[in-house]
Design brief:
With 761 residues, the chain is an alpha/beta fold. A 14-stranded parallel beta sheet has the order 1-2-5-25-28-31-35-38-41-44-47-50-53-56. Strands 3-6-26-29-32-36-39-42-45-48-51-54-57 form a 13-stranded parallel beta sheet, with no helix packed on it. Strands 4, 24, 27, 30, 33, 34, 37, 40, 43, 46, 49, 52 and 55 form a 13-stranded mixed beta sheet that branches. A hairpin with an 8-residue loop joins strand 17 and strand 18. The relative contact order is 0.09.
Length: 761
């Protein structure tokens, strides 16, 4: 025994020292960053290894040579007959040929588009361009990359030194004059006009420009891409954000300080008074060097990090240092709100930036490395590359790029978009409305907004849409609009998002509205990089979106730079959802955030290292309905009641599909029963495995504890992960001893990690 004691004494001393050091660090975090800082520091300190889950090298199938009915080639002519020996020059001409073709007795019609770049403004499909169930029409790349480019490729040899344009050069720093080159877009071979490159309009998901008289809203301006990387309109600072300081005045926004200050008639107000901020002396001096403030815009998160908006500068007083935006912030103001200035010629100071003199058509670019070999693309079209209304179409292996709008927008049934690359666009990548549409094996990147939007099915009858977004690689999107632009959005009834790999975005990855959707086998990481109040998978504020299932997804490593978002976020009383078999690792805030809803089934999930809580289940809807709580959407005259009463929730179809509706009541005299709709009732949190530093399931409100079932969850110390899983340091989160786990949770089913993510086919 003596030997044992002497052996363990040094280890005990070391552990004490580590504990003391950790306490000191946490105390320092409390002083400098507050409680959230402590949680984030602790989350980072005890970070587990990222799961190594089924990542594929290649998404899209290679374009193979095939036989077609019509051919298009960059060396063809629209006077040809479209045969392989005499191909058309444009896709539009091939569409005309398909339209005129007799489809009777055919198994399909295929248009083969040979490798090369095809300049298009917009390809509009009408019903007459449809195929049939027996004879779909396919447009496919044939033996290499076929690019439908809605912009223009700029030749490096057409750029000239900035010294040749003194009016521009005089506004640049000496260093910039050595690096900036200029292209006159108005001259041949481009011969573009202001209508081509567009003006600056308000951007951001929560701008207020439509409340002001004048021409403030429209398509995004043209954008510049160098080697497939979006260039920033010259901005200050070059990266990251400034922070607002003194708020001199909060203007006439919809809210001034939270939802309870909302102005009821705000939507009818015209030209509301803007906010006013005071900047520091250094920033004031810098703004004073900018020659034309009328062209300068600001972009920021003026109140909440989920509400981005832009505004021009209305005025700046160099004496008082008061900065007045043109547009008011929708939700009010605060100090330390992140923002930056953009479209400032004087701030063209580094690689990755550009500026366009819109009056004279002079494009100014900081030369990239190896400039002569650079590929430089300018987006131009204000329309989707492919758009319209048609059915039974297939788009296979195409590259879509260069639009200031969405890339592909179609209404119709049985449309397939597969093996395509969508990149360098201002809007969403692929938007399909109709039934039985399929988006598979595509790569989507460098969009200004979101990725895939599928809308199908009928909410009245609960007819399933049968649309699928599967096996897509979606990354580096939402680069202009930085909130609420998901990689995948499902709307309607009965659609599926499966086997996608999704990463690198400022905000959420997947969202949905409606009923009976399935979100499964997706691999999601490094999203919500600029947000706290956000979730990788997110939906919210509805008592009528019952029947959705979120299962077998792997979510890990969210947030950045202190931002602490959630994993799966059922916001604002969202009810009737099933969350099962998901694995969530290194989630900075809540792994599963249940925002006061009812009829939630949360089972068989694994949580490893949630920064704040593994589960948070509050009672905001009950609080909003029965007290003066902040969530007034659930108050008697709230919009959640309006939506519920306008739905078929009392009808036979819905009550058969969702039996919970048969016992639910909107009778406020029954507020203390589980049947009262705003109560967090009839939910089940069972059989989840949670590894937590505090050995806690998290926060469960008293009402949720009373009206729902929370039982038989395994809560383990975070230090136990290495024994529980096969090889955590290597990212292997398979359970080491499933039989032993089932002694505590008999119904636990192993999560099929080998099926999560893209399948490679």
């Amino acid at each position: 025994m003596e030997a044992d004691h002497s052996t363990h004494k040094p280890k005990k001393k070391l552990l004490i020292r580590i504990a003391v050091l950790t306490s000191v660090l946490l105390l320092a975090a409390a002083v400098f960053f507050g409680a959230r800082g402590i949680l984030y520091l602790r989350y980072r300190h005890f970070r587990a290894a990222d799961p190594a889950v089924n990542m594929q090298e290649q998404t899209r199938e290679a374009s193979m040579m095939t036989n077609g009915d019509f051919y298009v080639s960059t060396t063809g002519s629209d006077t040809n007959d479209g045969s392989s020996d005499a191909p058309f020059r444009t896709v539009g001409k091939a569409m005309e040929a398909v339209r005129a073709a007799d489809k009777t007795g055919r198994q399909g019609i295929t248009v083969c588009i040979e490798p090369g770049e095809y300049r298009v403004s917009a390809l509009h499909f009408g019903k007459e361009d449809s195929g049939t169930a027996d004879a779909p029409v396919t447009y496919r790349a044939n033996g290499g990359e076929a690019v439908l480019h809605a912009g223009v490729t700029l030749r490096t040899e057409d750029f000239r030194p900035v010294k040749d344009y003194p009016a521009v050069a005089d506004r640049l720093s000496a260093d910039a004059r050595e690096h900036v080159v200029v292209l006159d877009l108005t001259q041949p071979p481009y011969s573009l006009t202001a209508a081509d490159w567009g003006k600056l309009y308000a951007l951001g998901s929560y701008h207020t420009a439509d409340h002001y008289d004048g021409d403030w809203t429209g398509p995004l301006y043209c954008e510049l891409f160098v080697n497939d990387t979006r260039q920033n309109l010259a901005r200050y600072p070059d990266s990251g954000f400034l922070l607002t300081e003194e708020v001199v005045k909060t203007g006439q926004g919809k809210e001034s300080d939270g939802a309870r200050t909302a102005v009821k008639n705000w939507d009818s107000i015209r030209n509301p008074e803007p906010d006013v901020y005071r900047v520091n002396e250094a920033l004031a001096a810098r703004i004073g060097t900018w020659q034309n403030l009328q062209d300068v815009w600001m972009f920021g998160f003026w109140k909440y990090d989920w509400a981005d908006a832009s505004t021009p500068i209305q005025s700046f007083d160099n004496t008082t240092r008061e900065l007045t935006p043109r547009f008011v912030s929708l939700y009010g103001t605060k100090t330390d709100a992140p923002f930056y200035f953009f479209n400032v010629l004087e701030e063209l100071t580094t690689a990755g930036e550009w500026y366009l003199d819109r009056e004279n058509g002079l494009l100014c670019l900081w030369k990239p490395e190896d400039f002569d070999a650079a590929k430089i693309d300018l987006s131009l079209s204000g329309s989707p590359v492919i758009n319209g209304e048609a059915s039974h179409l297939v788009f296979d292996g195409l590259t879509l790029q260069g639009t200031r709008s969405d890339a592909l927008v179609l209404s119709g049934d049985n449309i397939t978009v597969q093996n395509c690359l969508v990149k360098n666009i201002a809007g969403n990548a692929i938007c399909l409305t109709g039934d039985n549409n399929l988006v598979r094996n595509n790569e989507i990147t460098r969009t200004g907004k979101g990725g895939i939007v599928l809308t199908g099915g009928d909410t009245q009858t609960l007819r399933a849409g049968g649309c699928r977004a599967e096996n897509n690689l979606i990354h580096d999107w939402s680069e202009i609009y930085q909130t609420y632009q998901p990689a995948v959005t499902l709307n309607g009834v009965g659609n599926v998002c499966a086997h996608n790999e999704i990463y690198n975005s400022p905000h959420e990855a997947i969202t949905y509205t409606g009923n009976n959707h399935i979100i499964e086998y997706n691999l999601i990481h490094d999203v919500c990089l600029l947000s706290d109040d956000a979730g990788a998978i997110y939906a919210g504020r509805s008592w009528i979106w019952y029947g959705n299932v979120i299962r077998y997804n792997c979510i890990y490593s969210l947030g950045s730079d202190g931002h602490a978002p959630d994993g799966i976020y059922m916001d604002d009383a969202l009810s009737g959802q099933e969350i099962t078999g998901n694995i969530l690792v290194n989630i900075p805030r809540y792994a599963m955030h249940l925002g006061g809803g009812r009829d939630l089934t949360v089972t068989n999930n694994i949580v490893v290292n949630a920064g704040e809580r593994a589960v948070s289940y509050d009672d905001r809807a009950r609080d909003g309905a029965l007290t003066d709580g902040w969530f007034d959407h659930a108050a008697k005259d709230g919009d959640m009641w309006t939506a519920l009463h306008g739905s078929p929730w009392t009808g036979a179809v819905w009550r058969e599909a969702f039996p919970a509706y048969t016992t639910m009541t909107d009778d406020f005299s029954k507020a203390e029963t589980a049947d009262f709709i705003p109560n967090p009732a009839n939910s089940t949190l069972r059989g989840n495995v949670i590894f937590d530093l505090r050995k806690s399931i998290g926060y469960v409100s008293d009402a949720a504890d009373e009206f729902s079932t929370i039982e038989n969850n395994m809560i383990l110390p975070l230090s136990g992960v290495n024994k529980f899983f096969i090889d955590v340091p290597a990212g292997d989160y398979r359970i080491a001893d499933l039989q032993k786990l089932r002694e505590s949770i008999p119904e636990f089913r192993e999560i099929p990690l080998d099926r999560i993510g893209r399948t490679g086919s």
